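Consider the tokenized backbone below.
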């Protein structure tokens, strides 16, 4: 994707004590979420956390793959990969 958007690999850990970005795990971003994995609750919590940390509208962060897996791919609109990593880990 171009500077208008990118894709981000996410390693999700649902059912944690709190929702937080842990850091980098290889090429992925490790995220703990307090929400359970049932009914897409953890996925929604991850997308909301990423949108908030990146300063993007909710519609700018979408789940591309991994809805039922801890290994996810998220599409980000309005931010480059470099900007995303700087904002998420900075």
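A designed sequence for it:
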């Amino acid at each position: 994707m171009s500077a208008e958007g990118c894709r981000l690999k996410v390693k999700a850990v649902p059912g944690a004590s709190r929702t937080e970005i842990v850091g980098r795990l290889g090429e992925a971003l490790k995220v703990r979420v307090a929400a359970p994995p049932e009914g897409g609750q953890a996925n929604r919590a991850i997308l909301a956390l990423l949108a908030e940390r990146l300063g993007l509208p909710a519609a700018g962060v979408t789940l591309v793959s991994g809805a039922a897996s801890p290994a996810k791919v998220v599409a980000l609109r309005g931010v480059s990969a470099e900007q995303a990593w700087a904002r998420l880990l900075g």
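Residues 41-54 form the longest helix (14 residues).
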